[in-house]
Design a protein that fits this description.
With about 450 residues, the chain is an alpha/beta fold. About 50% of the residues lie in helices and about 15% in strands.
Length: about 450
């Protein structure tokens, strides 16, 4: 514990004001204590001191011109955190809340998430404080072109050095514009980005992967409890990519999703966002019209809850799928009091440390984001494989591989938790299982690794 405290204090001193990064590091380091006690070689090789320090941090200017002819300037980031087990891999986030602390927290989490997939991918993250909401397609294109003009300088030999993907605010449209810029500059069709459209190297199931993967992880946790998804009432926050395909997969497996949300509020549909007119309307609203979730409530006459998240709604399983720290201590207690048996993080770090403690103390099966939402980066890795082999796997093949990866992640986290004296604690299990592979690789590579 003294060693962990010393490393954490150095992180605080070196990274002032980066509260999200501090939170992520503290959670990981404290959960590694049983592992560090059992394996002194990690302290002897200063693995903690090295793993909390990014290999490279890049901050750059992104100038672009809006439709009125006015020049705008945003800030871009790429944090290449750890490449011990493979090339840097991690998404790009375009959102006004983005600053270096958020990118570092996401990149740090990505180290362990990527390790858990079993695929050879290191951890990275990037993005900008640019907000694509309310921008025309041409404005988004100009921004993406300017962003990629600078980012491409730092990606090295593409998929062998750093292969970004999408995150909040970066979907197929943005990936396409950035890929087009890369092709123009490099004169190469190499798949430097994942999340591409199928027409130019994308993978089937990639848009669905994070939501599908979170649901598959939930199924594995339910099996441990002797249950399945049939008849389970689920609350989902968010209404973006992760939420959309969590709804789809829960429906397929016989569950019922009763909530969705966006930055303005949430909806409660007690009959469920079922296949057919409701689900089709929801997808068209968000994927085509980019509208607000309030329109769903107006269309189907259900409750709209302005400026409220769905955590007071009674449920069996909660899927926080919007953004970091959306479930606070009081929300967690409400979920427990209402009989929630499982919380599955579709977003990155959506539960505060106090909320996580309440879930674990109450015996709720709690799946941390680095395990539960690893399906997205897993299929990104599968997209890289298909690009390298010049192949395109069928939908069924990719889905089966994704399901197998999520089952592997659950097994690794569950077994690590038991081995290190914290049975059924998926936070400890996921962190230790992800850490061991990276830490051993860093030792094998020498002090420069």
């Amino acid at each position: 514990m003294d060693y962990v405290d010393q490393v954490y204090e150095k992180v605080l001193a070196k990274n002032p004001g980066q509260k999200e990064f501090h939170q992520a590091v503290k959670e990981v380091l404290e959960s590694l204590i049983p592992c560090l006690e059992k394996h002194p070689k990690f302290k002897e090789n200063a693995i903690l001191e090295r793993i909390v320090e990014p290999e490279r941090q890049v901050i750059f200017r992104v100038p672009w011109m809006d439709d009125s002819g006015k020049i705008r300037v945003n800030r871009g980031f790429r944090i290449q955190f750890n490449s011990a087990i493979g090339p840097y891999k991690g998404g790009l986030r375009f959102h006004p809340s983005v600053y270096i602390g958020i990118i570092k927290f996401l990149g740090f989490e990505q180290i362990f998430k990527n390790s858990l997939t079993g695929l050879p991918m290191g951890g990275a993250k990037g993005g900008s404080d640019f907000d694509p909401k309310g921008k025309s397609d041409v404005e988004v294109m100009r921004f993406c072109q300017s962003f990629m003009m600078e980012l491409q300088r730092h990606l090295g030999y593409a998929v062998y050095t750093d292969c970004p993907a999408g995150d909040i605010g970066v979907g197929g449209r943005e990936i396409g514009y950035m890929m087009g810029t890369w092709k123009k500059i490099k004169n190469s069709s190499e798949g430097v980005l994942t999340g591409k459209d199928l027409e130019f190297g994308g993978s089937l199931i990639r848009p669905e992967a994070t939501g599908y993967g979170a649901t598959y992880f939930a199924v594995e946790m339910l099996k441990v409890r002797g249950q399945d998804m049939k008849g389970k009432v689920c609350t989902v926050s968010g209404s973006g990519n992760v939420a959309q395909y969590t709804v789809e997969k829960v429906n397929q497996l016989g569950g019922k999703v009763v909530t969705l949300s966006d930055s303005n509020g949430s909806i409660y549909d007690p009959d469920g966002i079922t296949f057919g007119k409701k689900f089709d309307f929801f997808l068209e609203l968000k994927q085509v019209r980019r509208g607000r979730i309030k329109e769903y409530a107006e269309e189907f006459g259900v409750e709209y809850r302005p400026n409220k998240l769905p955590w007071d709604i009674k449920c069996d399983i909660a899927f926080p799928s919007a953004t970091q720290n959306e479930i606070e201590k009081a929300d967690a207690q409400t979920l427990v009091d209402n009989g929630c048996i499982a919380v599955v993080e579709g977003a990155n770090m959506p539960s505060t440390p106090e909320a996580v403690d309440i879930f674990i103390d109450a015996g709720v099966s709690f799946a941390p984001g680095k395990a539960a939402n690893a399906g997205g980066v897993a299929v990104s890795g599968l997209e890289m494989s298909q690009n390298s082999m010049r192949l395109s796997w069928t939908r069924e093949e990719v889905d089966n591989r994704l399901k197998g990866i999520m089952e592997h992640i659950h097994k690794a986290a569950y077994e690590a938790a038991e081995k290190y004296g914290k049975p059924k604690n998926y936070v400890v299990g996921a962190n230790i299982a992800g850490f061991l592979k990276v830490a051993n690789a860093m030792i094998a590579l020498g002090v420069i690794g």
